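Lab channel / #folding
Pinned by the channel admin:
"Please post every new chain as: sequence first, then the structure tokens as a reply. Keep commentary short and put observations after the output so the thread stays searchable."

First post following the new format, from NK:
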Amino acid sequence: MKRCAIAVLLTLFAGVACNEIERPEEKMVPISFSAAVSDGIATRATGMIGDDASLQSGGFGVFGCYTGLHNYSESDANSSFMYNQELEWVSGDAHWEYNPVKYWPGEEGHKVSFFAYAPYSECDGTGCIPSCVRYQETADPWVMYRIAEDPAQQVDLLYATPLLDQTKMAVNERLEFTFKHALACVGDNVTISTSATGVTLKEVSIDYTLTAKGRLVLWNRGSANWTPIQSEDVVTVRSVSLLTGGHEPLPKTFSGQGLFCIPAEAAGYPQKATIHVTYVVNNVEHTATSELMLKGLLQEGKTLDINITLNVN
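Reply from TO:
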């Protein structure tokens, strides 16, 4: 009996020693992140992510592609290493957290490339960010964006500069994501003026014809990598009422009702803004309509203000 007990103990000790040699605890280095917004759209539009605090409020999603000893550019990579992982801000400890924690590959020189977007979405078919690359799809990671049905529910979209071919870091080091704005904003300031006197505004509205949805590829060279999606309705119309039943003297500026839009359009489906103005001169009501083609005017991370001059005879 004693001989058997001793044999079992020796086997257990040998097993512990073997595990320590194969994967010592001190060599398991967790992958940690930090993040900051590098730019901000000068707008008061609903849903705007303008600073680090608003980024922290919405969190962000990460895709990680493991390529072994090869560079990302040499590989047919997928996002199975880290798939749309949600990063949440822990205000008490002032750090980004996710679960379950991923660890750097133990093999020397093995590489992982990371891609990120904000705010985080479950990509469950709802909202402005309804879908993303499939789990084991061999492709650059991407997310889909679509224009909100209700402008009051619109969502901003940011992308990070990719962190390519990263290797194991020290325990206290963090991967640093720098986020930029992927969308443009149109009509946040709309100014109507005239050289005539005694003109007042009664009604002002704008019908925006916009690219309905697009695919934002998270691999990029420092600018948003957009591809319009040409299925179902390629464009969509959103109407914004700036003034109803008013009696406003000119000039007049309407602010804070800008729409986020995709700064790309499919061939044959132009984006445009159709402005309708009803004004009064000497108690006589007049209506004017003007169409602004948006191609080449919408730029990621920038607002496009609209200025209308009424030619009153």
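NK: Residues 32 and 173 are 7 Å apart (CA to CA).
TO: also worth noting, The chain has two helices and 20 strands.
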